[in-house]
Write a structure and sequence with these properties.
The complex is a heterodimer of chains A (156) and B (212).
Chain A: H1 2-23, H2 83-86, H3 91-94, H4 143-150
Chain B: H1 13-29, H2 37-61, H3 65-68, H4 72-82, H5 98-102, H6 107-116, H7 118-125, H8 132-152, H9 156-159, H10 174-184, H11 191-194
The chains are: A mainly alpha (156), B mainly alpha (212).
Chain lengths: 156, 212
C-alpha cells in the first residue's frame, strides 16, 4: 500500500516536472523566445550604412569596412565594380581611397604592377555595414585602451 | 500543220512586267466609273485607320517584355540577369521593361531602331547567340553597341525616367550626390559612363575605359 502510494506520487511529480519544463520558454538574445524545435519569424532586414564616412578600425590589421552600399556591384572573372573607383588610376576622378599597396604583393612578397589575383575579390575581407542593434553585447577593448590600463601614467 | 500550232513566241518577262505596270497605272489614274467619290473617300479613310492602327499595334506588340522574352536568347540570358536588379523589382513597384531602355520612345527614332533590329532577326534565324557560350563570346560586342548608342544620345533612355533637373541630391547618399554634382550636372559625363552593368551582367571589361 505504501509502495503503491509512493509510485503514484512519483508519477505525479514526474508529470508536473515535464509539464513545467515544456511550458518554460528559452530566452536567448540571438533566437528570441522561439522554442528550439521551431523556426521563428525572420527579423526584418535593416538598412545599409551608406554615409561614405570612414569608420575607425578596431585593430591595425583590420580590413576597413565598406561605408557605403554595394548592392548589385559585380565582382567576378569579367569585371570588378569596386576597382572602377578604388583602382590606382581611378582615384583622382572618384576621390575614393586607393586599394592598399599590400594588395599588389604576391604571396612571396613581390610587388606586382596591379592588384594581385589573390586580393581581387574585395568582399572576402571588406564588408558593408548594416544599421542595427546588436542582439548580444560585446566587450571588445582596443589595444590603446589596454595599454593605458596597464600603464596608468601614460608611459608605454 | 495548221495555224493553231503556230504560237506567237511569249514576250519576255521584262516586257510583260512593263505592260502590266502600264495597265495598273491606267487603272489608278482613271476616275472610277463604279464607286462614288464619297464611297471611295470613306473606304480610304476606314482602310487607313485599319492599316495604320494595325501597323502601330504590331509595332507595340514587338515593344513588350513578353515579346522580347519569347526568345530563349533573351529569356535565359539578359532577362534572367535583369531579375535581380533594381530595375525589375524595387520599393515603389515600377518596372523598366526591355523596350524602356533599348527602344527610343520618340516615334522617328523608334522606327529607325526597329529597322536596325532587322539585323537582330537575322541573327536569331541563324542562331548567332543560340547557346549561352555563344552569347558570352558575343557579349562584349553587343554591350559595346548599346554603350555607344547610349553615349551618342546622351543616355536618352535613362533620361526618359531619370532627369537631372528633378534629381534631389540631398535625398541621395553623399557619395552619389558628390558624383552627380561633379560629373552629371556639369555635363562632363552621361549616365552610361558610370552606370554600366546596372541591368545586366558585365562582359569581360579589360580594355573598357574606366575599368580594370
Amino acid at each position: 500500500m505504501v509502495r503503491k502510494t509512493a509510485i503514484l506520487f512519483l508519477a505525479i511529480a514526474i508529470a508536473a516536472g515535464t509539464g513545467a519544463l515544456a511550458a518554460e520558454t528559452l530566452e536567448s538574445g540571438l533566437r528570441g523566445s522561439t522554442p528550439l524545435n521551431e523556426e521563428g519569424p525572420a527579423p526584418p532586414m535593416t538598412p545599409m550604412r551608406n554615409t561614405a564616412e570612414k569608420e575607425v578600425r578596431n585593430y591595425p590589421e583590420q580590413p576597413p569596412v565598406i561605408p557605403h552600399s554595394i548592392d548589385g556591384y559585380q565582382i567576378d572573372l569579367h569585371s570588378n565594380k569596386c576597382l572602377s573607383c578604388h583602382a590606382r588610376a581611378r582615384t583622382a576622378e572618384s576621390q575614393a581611397p586607393m586599394v592598399s599597396i599590400t594588395h599588389f604583393m604576391d604571396r612571396d612578397g613581390q610587388f606586382l604592377a596591379s592588384i594581385s589575383p589573390r586580393r581581387y575579390f574585395c568582399t572576402e575581407c571588406h564588408v558593408p555595414q548594416n544599421v542595427t542593434n546588436p542582439p548580444v553585447s560585446n566587450d571588445f577593448v582596443d589595444i590603446d585602451t589596454m595599454l593605458s590600463r596597464a600603464a596608468p601614467d601614460g608611459r608605454r | 500543220m495548221t495555224g493553231l500550232d503556230q504560237k506567237e513566241p511569249r514576250p519576255g518577262f521584262a516586257k510583260r512586267a512593263w505592260s502590266f505596270l502600264l495597265e495598273l497605272l491606267d487603272v489608278l489614274i482613271k476616275p472610277s466609273t463604279v464607286f462614288g467619290l464619297g464611297v471611295l473617300v470613306i473606304a480610304g479613310f476606314v482602310a487607313g485607320i485599319i492599316f495604320w492602327g494595325g501597323f502601330n499595334t504590331a509595332l507595340e506588340v514587338t515593344n513588350t517584355e513578353k515579346f522580347c522574352t519569347s526568345c530563349h536568347e533573351m529569356r535565359d540570358n539578359v532577362f534572367a540577369e535583369l531579375k535581380s536588379t533594381i530595375h525589375f523589382t524595387n520599393r515603389s513597384g515600377v518596372r523598366a521593361t526591355c523596350p524602356d531602355c533599348h527602344v527610343p520612345h520618340n516615334w522617328t527614332d523608334k522606327i529607325a531602331r526597329k529597322m536596325q533590329a532587322s539585323q537582330e532577326v537575322w541573327g536569331k534565324l541563324f542562331g548567332y547567340i543560340n547557346t549561352r557560350e555563344k552569347f558570352q563570346d558575343k557579349r562584349l560586342e553587343l554591350a559595346l553597341h548599346e554603350w555607344a548608342r547610349f553615349k551618342a544620345n546622351d543616355s536618352l533612355e535613362c533620361r526618359n525616367c531619370h532627369s537631372a533637373d528633378s534629381m534631389d541630391v540631398t535625398k541621395q547618399s553623399p557619395r552619389a550626390a558628390v558624383a552627380h554634382e561633379r560629373y552629371l550636372f556639369t555635363g562632363e559625363k552621361t549616365c552610361i559612363d558610370c552606370h554600366k552593368g546596372i541591368a545586366h551582367h558585365l562582359p569581360d571589361m579589360r580594355g573598357v575605359p574606366g575599368w580594370q
